[in-house]
Every structure is written in structure tokens, then in C-alpha cells.
Amino acid sequence: MLVIKNTRAVHEGAGLFTFTHPITLNKISAWACDADSLWAKSENSEIPDYTIAGNLKKECFFGPTSMIVFPSIEITAIRKD
Predict the structure, then answer these.
(1) pLDDT for res 58
(2) Cβ neighbours of residue 72 under 8 Å, at least 6 residues apart?
(3) What's the rounded Cα separation, in Å, for the pair 8 and 20?
(4) In terms of Cα–Cα distance, which of 14, 18, 22, 32 is closest to 74?
(5) Are 42 and 5 a contacting pair, CB within 8 Å?
């Protein structure tokens, strides 16, 4: 598990957030463990408009699959900018 703090993110919808990983600096996406229906989808997927903090968890491995499996994030703080 990795704790992220004050991370700028884009909400892709349905609790999926895209942001820069604090260690690898790669752009990643993660599903919120408890998505809130009040979170609005970001208007532009290239411009972060949320600031989030939370616990980034590794994705679960279910065996070989052709689907993209995103890690999950337990959001401890979120703010729409």
C-alpha cells in the first residue's frame, strides 16, 4: 500500500481517477473503493480538477485476462478545485 497526499487528479467517472504516481511519475488510474455518486466527472480528461489523498492499493490478480485491471484507492480526502 502507498499513501498519496495532495495529488491532482482527473475523475473519469464512476469512481475512476487518473493521476501521476508519486514514485514512478507515470500516469495511472485507480478505482475508488467507495465511489461517491456526487463526484462530478472532470470536464477535460487532460486537466486535473480534483485534489485527492488516500491509500493506493495493488490490484487484485485473478489470473490471465485481456481486461485492464486498475488498482484501487481508499480515498481519505477529496476536494473539487
Answers:
(1) 72
(2) 30, 31, 32, 33, 56, 57, 59
(3) 8
(4) 32
(5) no
The Cβ of residue 42 has, within 10 Å, a number of other Cβ atoms equal to: 19
The amino acid sitting at 52 is I
- Distance set, CA 7 to CA 12, 22, 53, 63 (Å): 15, 8, 6, 31
Q: Which residues pair with 72 in a beta bridge?
A: 31, 57
Report pLDDT digits (tens) over 9-48: 999 999 999 999 999 999 999 999 999 999 999 999 999 9
**Residue 70, pLDDT score:** 81
